[in-house]
Amino acid sequence: MIAFENLEVRYAAAAAPALKGLTLSLDRGIVGLLGPNGAGKSTLLKALLGLLRPSAGGGTVLGIPLGAPESARLRGRIGYMPEYDALIEDATAYEQVAFWGELSGLAPEAARDRAHEVLYFVGLDEARYRPVSGYSTGMRQRVKLAQALVHSPELVFLDEPTNGLDPDGRRRMLDLVLRVHAELGTGVILASHLLGDVERVADQLVILDQGQIKAAGSMAGLRRALARRVELRFLDPLDAAQEAALAELGAVLESRNGLYDLELAEADPPAVFRWAEAMGATLIQLTPRHDRLDEVLLRALHPATATTGA
Amino acid sequence: MPIYAPTLPPAPDLNQGQPPALVLMRFDLARLWRQKIGRFFGFAFLMVLIVKLTVIYVKYLLDTNAALRPMQDFAKAVLSQGAEFQAGLLDPASYLLWFLVALVGGGLVARDTLYRVRPLMYAHPVSPRDYLVAKLGFASALPFAVLLPFVLLPWAMSLMVAGLHGPVWPTAPLRLLPAVAVLSLLMGAMAVGASAMAATPRAGVGWVLGLVLGTSALASLVQGLTGFVGAQALNPVLLAQTWPQLFVGMDRPFMGWFPAALGTAFHIGLWTFVAARRTLPSEAVI
């Protein structure tokens, strides 16, 4: 779906590149794009939309090279739901979704028919003839999603789609995101600060910081790679020398009643068995602790300080 | 509680659509229709047009009706059939037109800025050039469409009632339509340039009026201080009035071809450049 190698994007006025050395390949699925403000998420989306030409490296989106002259055609195959409002306040939902459909290349009559269908899909069937200025936040977010889907894109970029929504609205929006991928086969890139949202829908994750990829891969794979916390229990209490030697494996975050909460220096749990055998300790329990996504994110962004954050 | 569709069928073929600039212009036209300001201006322009047509008919009656023969000498002095009369067909309308262009054109770009829809347009297969062409095209097509009846209806009526010897020249459209095209482009460029500098449609109206009246005042000030008549080439109101005079070959137009062309090119170039710069994709928005 998307692949780039050593991608660098530099703004004309900036001394440092906004994106540097990005190498990544993403399969069709739901990709969560995480990172703090200024990490380069928006720049990456602009580059993927073909609005910014790479200053070095390159890549392809849906088989079209980044920055190529045919990037305008590429934008007809991509849907984009911006984070900001971007709604035409004096138009009805139906009028503006049909308008965006026409701008994407649909014939006028087809765009009007399609606007009805897609507004029904996002649950705005009954409200479609009302000006959007009277819509609730949830309805406005759904209009934005509808305009991104009106032309049946192969890939859709959703920038903070659950911003400002209550828990029920968030759940409904995330259900729609899941349906977009599951029923329409559309690839989704979901940029969000709400880790719970990404955790719920994404099957791949990219963590960006300071224009660089800190971690990327499938959610399960990332968890495995970054999950270094284990709980250990030994048959006999460790003596002082053994406890001191335990530090060879990683940082001991907590120990009580013979139970050690350990963060391994390497994501290599079998190393614990080798250590126990070498130290003559009988290990009776090794429990991997499944990190939550926010712990994964923190560890990727701040590897040096994450060990004390338990 | 929203009701969701069971599924979404695939979209039709994407390659059947119209050019993006045309889609944008049609949407602006629909928006203008919704705003309903056409009623006021429609009435005002209709009144002006009726007066024009009445004058032509009265002149025809004076020329042909024996009972009115004593008034003919007087009428000939008042209702000239010369170049001035042809150019004057557009005069009153063009004053009112500046206000229409300000009211409609002032919001053309500013409204997209306010609603932040322009970056989203550029995330579609729309280039900044498409956007600029659409806005300039619409802002110029509006005065052209308004002035078209002022050229064609008196001409057609004159032909119908008096044939080739009516008060409006048979060749008048060939001379006036190019003039209308130039002054429409001038009005459109100024409206779009001013609107591109505004953050809201209301501010856009102010910007258009400010630019038009401001440059006119500046031109008069420079002329007053230096005595340099060519300074009036900066005056967009005067430029718009001059082009019909030049095309119909009036003896004493407000200014000559060269200063009119220079001033018009300056305004169109400057405000198109401003609009182009202000509507480029922003690096900070998407």
UniProtKB/TrEMBL annotation, chain A:
Alphabetical list of Gene3D superfamilies matching this protein: P-loop containing nucleotide triphosphate hydrolases
SMART domains recorded: AAA
PROSITE patterns reported for this sequence: ABC_TRANSPORTER_2
SUPFAM superfamilies, A to Z: P-loop containing nucleoside triphosphate hydrolases (SSF52540)
Residue spans crossing the bilayer: none
Name of one Pfam family that matches: ABC_tran
Keywords of the record: ATP-binding, Nucleotide-binding, Transport
Source species, domain of life: Bacteria
InterPro entries: AAA+_ATPase, ABC_transporter-like_ATP-bd, P-loop_NTPase
Domain named ABC transporter: residues: 2-235
Keyword DNA-binding applies: no
Signal peptide start-end: none
Family: Belongs to the ABC transporter superfamily.
Protein name listed in UniProt: ABC transporter domain-containing protein
Natural source organism: Geothrix rubra
UniProtKB/TrEMBL annotation, chain B:
Alphabetical keyword list: Membrane, Transmembrane, Transmembrane helix
The organism's place on the tree of life at top rank: Bacteria
Transmembrane spans: 40-62, 95-115, 136-156, 176-199, 206-234, 254-276
Protein name: ABC transporter permease
